[in-house]
Amino acid sequence: MEYKVVVPPLGESVVEGTIVKWLKSEGDQIKVDDPIVEIMTDKINVEIPSPHDGVMTKRLVPIDTVVQIGQEIAIMEVEGEVTQARTFETKPESGEERIPQEQEVKEPPPEFIGTVEHHEKIGIHADKEAIEGGIKAVKSSPVVRRLAREHFIDLRMIKGTGKGGRVSKDDVVNYINMRHSADKVKPDFVWPQQEDEEVIPITGVRKVISEHMVKSAFTIPHVTTFDECDMSELRDWRRQNVDQIEKMHGVRITYLPFIAKAIIFAAKDFPWINSTLEEDTLRVKKYFNIGMAVARENSLIVPVIKHCEQKSLLQIARDMRDLADKAAKDILSMDEITGGTFSITNAGGMGALGSTPIIAKPQVAILGVHKIVDKPVVRDGEIVIRPILNFGMSFDHRVIDGGYAVQFLRRMIEYLENPQGWLIGVI
Questions:
Q1: Which of 59, 169, 219, 327 shows the smallest number of beta carbons within 10 Å?
Q2: What are phi and psi of 423, to 5 degrees?
């Protein structure tokens, strides 16, 4: 029988992806779970497995096409009667388990694919044709070609260092860094007399991220509250113990695990902070899956540390380290980037003193962490120097009132400023 392959769910808030590579050709024999196509989203690249044994009879969409969740992308011929492809929705009780739900899928007409209107819709510009020719003209891997397309690079401009002059991923990354460094003014640099500019289409991961940020910013009424935290006691405790902890347990603990624990403690009195808003229903979570924003090359991903309320500081620190390493290598699984209930973004690691972070839908709050700076403050009538960390928490004003958010942030800071009462029990 004929079986239609559709794009499955690709993660929370992900509504579309881009076909990066077909892994099976028309006429290929396919076994169940064989990867048949690679799809790129703003979060991760996913290889879609075959749900049945069969033969690939037709591929419905070409490479570099943007496809929606549930869209038909291929047709297989399978033996016997099988259940047709389904899409999925989140089960309300857990926020994680998925149950099937039939959904009608509208496929773009074949005559539309490849037209100018179609190219404009999926972000392909006329200038890209020349670049694409340069990419195909050079021997390279799929990863290298994808990087070249994302950064609008003609691979003929790069000298390959691989075997037989093959262009490697490192060659492309070095070229990108060199191109960025050219922006730095040198003493003998002379600005060109004519007008000059670099045209970079917003496509691929960057395009999907921008669309999601627009949706979040313009559908959620964001409000950001700021507060300062005196990190003196926590800094002193960490300085006294961090080396010994690393020697004994193999993990160098940062401030983020302490902040995660303080969020959990404070949310006991302000539980709506740890919730998701889905249409007209607020789902207050009794567990804490804390997302941690990690910057990557021209993109951002948010790995999720599951059930932080059940874990020690050391285990949270290990999970944060391991997930950050996976994010850098682009090997995160779908389970490791979904299911978040509250997010942290650490702009302080890059020197920021303040920010107004954007909430990750459908969550209702996100905490911005910034650089710890020694500042003069008044204590007991005297001016003293203290390490001050400035927090900025954005919240969804549809469900979180200002007073509620301010009190939660202040309560969280109180836990961080007075850690001795709870540290021993959570190491």
A1: 219
A2: -65, -45
Report pLDDT digits (tens) over 339-369.
999 999 999 988 999 999 999 989 999 999 9
β-pairing, 54-59 vs 35-40, is unpaired
The CA-atom distances, in angstroms, between 214 and each of 3, 19, 30, 361 are 36, 23, 40, 11
Q: Is 118 a catalytic residue?
A: no
Name the active-site residue from 119, 222, 249, 397.
397
**Cβ(104)–Cβ(37) below 8 Å:** no
- Report the side by side order of strands in the sheet with 29-30: 2-6, 72-77, 54-59, 29-30
Helix axes 204-219, 142-150, angle to 10 degrees: 50
- Helices 169-181, 142-150: crossing angle, 10 deg rounding: 20
pLDDT tens digits for range 289-309: 999 998 876 677 899 999 999
Residue 349, token pair as written in the block: 């690691």
pTM over 0.70: no
Reading the block at residue 238, the tokens are 């960490």
Give residue 186's identity as a one-letter amino acid code. Answer: K
Do the Cβ atoms of 201 and 149 come closer than 8 Å? no
* Domains of the chain in sequence order: 126-200 (4.10.320.10), 220-426 (3.30.559.10)
According to the per-residue pLDDT averaged within each range, which of 33-47, 75-89, 347-361 is highest?
347-361
List the one residue out of 210, 229, 198 whose CA is nearest residue 390.
Answer: 229
Nearest-angstrom CA–CA distance, 261 and 22: 44
Q: What Rg, from alpha-carbon coordinates, does the chain have? A: 25
Burial 246-281 (b: 16+ CB within 10 A, else e): eeeeebebebbbbbbbbbbbbbeebebbbbbbeeee
Which tokens is 100 given?
């099937």
